[in-house]
Amino acid sequence: MAATGLVLLAPGSASATPAAGTSAGCVFHDDITETPAGATFNDTGAPGFSAGDTGTFKIALTNPDGSRFGDGTGSITVLAGPPPAENHVIILLDETINIPEGSLHAVGVVDHTATATGARQTTFAAGLTGSLKGKIGLRSYVLPAGATLPLGTYILCG
């Protein structure tokens, strides 16, 4: 698969195409399959997604060749849901992801509904451990047309 990297100063834009791995002080990985490995959901308001609902999740990460790449855990808080958000569910995503170079913390606001239409969602990321410590960048994911699992991209530099 072709790399679809992100420019660090322009969240959500797809234009840089660095090779996977580490170069020039940056760590870049693309097309990482994110498979749900557990989840909880606390429906505190109206049935279904609504403001104030919370949840937790676990993900398993695999390389394009199917080999294990890492894992992650996180939480969501629904900030807005239908109808005030015009049929979009807006969530605060907060996660810790463990990849071969170390762990990273990613946090941001994403449009959960737009994910289903193939819109890339991007959050900011900061390295916590290993060779990621002190690096900052982006973490994004996209659900390609016809796919059932999202593909993740991780870019951290520093």
Determine the mean pLDDT: 85
Total count of strands: 9
The percent of residues in helical segments reads under 10%
Largest sheet: 8 strands, antiparallel, barrel
Strand content: over 45%
CATH homologous superfamily assignment: Allene oxide cyclase-like
Question: In which order are the strands of the major sheet placed?
Answer: 2-3-4-5-6-7-8-9
Number of domain modules = 1
User: What's the helix-strand series?
Assistant: EEEEEEHEEE
Question: What's a quick, concise take on this entry?
Answer:
This protein is 3% helix and 53% strand. The chain is an all-beta fold and 158 residues long.
Annotate the secondary structure layout.
Layout: E1 21-23, E2 26-42, E3 54-62, E4 68-80, E5 90-99, E6 102-111, H1 112-115, E7 121-127, E8 136-142, E9 151-157
